């Protein structure tokens, strides 16, 4: 029985540009601690094999100290480690894979074609390849079939299955089915996916182990698995992220916005980053997002509030008044009906709010 983990897309040294400078620096430090945490998991769970399917760095010219910290952490693993560089951390001049010394238990694939590494003690053959540029139009798996030699055959690649555009190692389903691999460990897709099976080959993307923005939501981690002597693969997803990105939609119609948000939140959000979309109907005053954000700030690591509320219908009814107020609302109501996007509708709604406040000599805040 071979015990392994499959991880990918660390994107070390990501900018975290949407956060404050202090929080961005803290998140970069946390991401650099990920390999050490992973090494502890490997050693505590008697893992034999570590498969890292590319984009471990956010660029091919990462900071040297980041690469040295990764190298040291991988060297602490009591396991064999294999790396297939991806489109962000491609193997080439200036790459940390070339400029940093890597420990003996780490093998980095360096060629833009499949190479085979033998591990006789485990009756294993591992096949992998490297991006050597930012794009890879030719599929690494094209024309490959593992020999029927009684060994376990595993593939390690950074790529996409049946993409609409051939830029990042396009892999065809029929190629996977014909590959003869027991398992194909993939990187590149940041959202973890359920394992797929084509022919006799199981393949999976673990996603990224830490989200970096609101396009990488929810639980993040890696796969832990086993392969028995017959080639049967068993996988378990291991949540591993320190912080989650979440988007929460809250309807504040006829409710106090703060109370509505607090009622919708899960119990523990202090470590997480939230974008809260406020929807529903409100009066002329809208939602005071700055004050609301300040009141809720200690509930989150970072909080972003977006006002997507609309004016209550009874306010638009006043467009029928024979008054300056009615004339103003009739014009905006027509613009609202012609709006093509949510952003356009929000602009009209905000114009109505501020205009009504001006007519009534109110401070909208």
From TrEMBL:
**Regions that span the bilayer:** none
| Keyword check for Methyltransferase | no
Please give the Gene Ontology molecular function terms for this protein. Answer: exonuclease activity
**Limits of the Calcineurin-like phosphoesterase domain:** 2-191
Cite the entry's keywords alphabetically: Exonuclease, Hydrolase, Nuclease
InterPro entries in alphabetical order: Calcineurin-like_PHP, DNA_Repair-Maintenance_Comp, Metallo-depent_PP-like, Mre11_N
Q: Which PANTHER family match?
A: COMPONENT OF ATP-DEPENDENT DSDNA EXONUCLEASE, PHOSPHOESTERASE
Name of this chain's protein: DNA repair exonuclease
Question: What species is given as this protein's source?
Answer: Dysosmobacter segnis
